[in-house]
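PT: before anyone asks, these are the final sequences, not the draft ones from last week. 728 residues across everything. Please model them as a single complex and drop the result in this thread when it's through.
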Amino acid sequence: MGFLLLKPEEIQDLVSMGEAIEAVEKGYAGGHRYPVINAPRRRVHSPAGVRISNFPGGVDEMGVIGAATRADHVVQLDEGQNQHYAYREHPIHVLNDSETGELLSIVVGEPVEKSLGYTSLVALRTAATSGVGFKYMVRENARTVGLLGSAGQAANQLLALISVRPEIRRVKVFSRNEENRSWFARKYSQKFDIEIEPVRSLEGAIKGVDVILCATNTNVVLFDGDLLEPGQHITGIIGGNMQLVQGGFLKAARREIDDKTVERADVIVTNLRESVISEKQGDLYEPIERGLINLEDIIELGSLATGEAVGRNHEGEITYHKNNNGTAASEIAVAMLVYEKAKAVGRGTMFDIVEPSVLAEEFAR
Amino acid sequence: MTRNVLLLRPHELQGLVTMKEAIDIVEKGYREARAYPAISAPRRRVHSPGGVRVSNFPGGVHGLEVIGTGERPDKLNKGGENQTKEFRGYPVHLVHDSNTGQLLSIMIGEIDEKTLGYTSVMALRTAATSGVGFRYLPRENVSVAGLFGSAGQAANQLLALLTERRSINKVKVYSRDPDNRSNFAKKYSKCFNIEIIPVDTPEEVIKGADVVHCATNTSVPLFDGALLESGQHLTGIVGSNVQLVKSGHRSSRRRELDDKTAERADLIVCNLRETIMVEEPGDLYEPLDKGLIKIEDIYELGELGTELCSGRTSEDQITYHKNTNGNGVADLGIARRAFDLAKADGRGTWLEFAEPEDLPQAI
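LR: through. Structure below.
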């Protein structure tokens, strides 16, 4: 018995966005067909602000089941307007064979997109999950994008969109800091060979675009849902969890998208409905509580992937993907991809583990 | 900058933690979590179509400066009166500092009781969790224990009881196989220096015992609750989860104790009430569902020994601890202790990782 240990340094240049989107799609489709293979993210918090996020689950089509775990030291700044981190630890992925149960690998570190490198935590799988939504929800003839945010999540989200819709030509990027948005425009217009224009106002990034991507770390609503136009697709990436409020780290549930957006959207998709309820995630939980929408009206990402549900019925619909949080369907899918590729090129260190029967002989009294 | 993380493997986790230490740690874990619930979560299990199950145990004990997760794979055989496993994987514990969030150790393997060694799955923390119940629930000066089961869990459960209740001087043991029960009696009467008598029926185990503890892998009730006698303390360790039923691995929820037991018990303590709703363990979920007992009347382990629940209040009460399953608060506390001891003993392999911010940035 043995397992392959992969270190952060060994997993930096292995996976492309296109491959990650494909793997995540398998994860959510499999979770939809066989729901007990997946579970919502669960978080625990220490009184000092350390938060453990645990993502149990697997992707049977890829032959894996296990869990991912990540520790963050969470700090709230600006009276809770933004969430920051005093420390973010490497995530750890424990991969077991989904047929035999045997430990295959422990992957330590963030799997990153190979052309983008390390940008921000969980940026690859978050963007790849948005990517599954883009595939089924964004209009085929979409050409323009409004991007809110200008850091690592923004770069990855944009790459996911152009991986799925290569016809996208023009991006308007807004973030509160002028320097950041100009830097982003310069850097990624070259990298992605696409026109990126920094805009001065948030409204400027929403008006007239086909797709709106939220890629910030906000704790409060970014824009008024009344600004949305028919045919637009919106993706939001902030989930939050009630334990943040319970533990006293935040006064109210995190928000990113307002109730109006939920009311106006013709199609709402979320990764896992159970997370909305178990974590009381503001953007969907609060409008459900107020009776503006029903939980049953929300489509799960997995049912788009299996073809059971349709992400967009016609050109004029407003579609909304609340990419509420990663689950093992994405975490373990991407980690398994990393393991397969690393193994194929001979990376990592094999460690032996003694069989239980040997242990029993040597150590049992 | 790089950091060091200690990799510990199964052979390096033996002979470290005693039952007494484990019981103290588990008590602290549950008690702190009762005061600060965000540090604890119920066990959560996921299942593959091939029958592999991964159990997850997130949690921590801030007083011991630990937070993290435990994870354990196994592969179950379908159905049956007893739960049997085709494969039992080692648990993996990811031990972090609860002040900084830094990973301290990747720990693969069972953390077994120092003197008992490798016996069964998660036997030390399961027994230590029962041990917290033994501390508060049996009568003073109990002398006779009735034990169901004769394998690793039984040995650990008995050690936990003897650790907390030194007045025990006689143990009656029953398991279905006569050889197993007499072997257990021979081996552990010597090991624990106590009288252990193998008996032929469940009735004999219960009759006249002060403490009855169940340590089997049954999936059906072990005895009729009508047999229980006033003043007895009862501990059960089978929890299970409703996902086994949902995925078709079982046709009904696992049971170990019957509805009559739940009805007759004057004081019921579970590990975490949230687990009853998340996993629907049959022994408590089904009598709740039938309206035989009420959730408000069930105490949690973290309330025992505090002003919320002082434990047994009279000599003739039947007390019942349903040790449904382990939780991260118990596992991570014990893992932290094992890490400290292993590190001090120079065990394990130090792994060197780059700090997250020192990895190559965007090209």
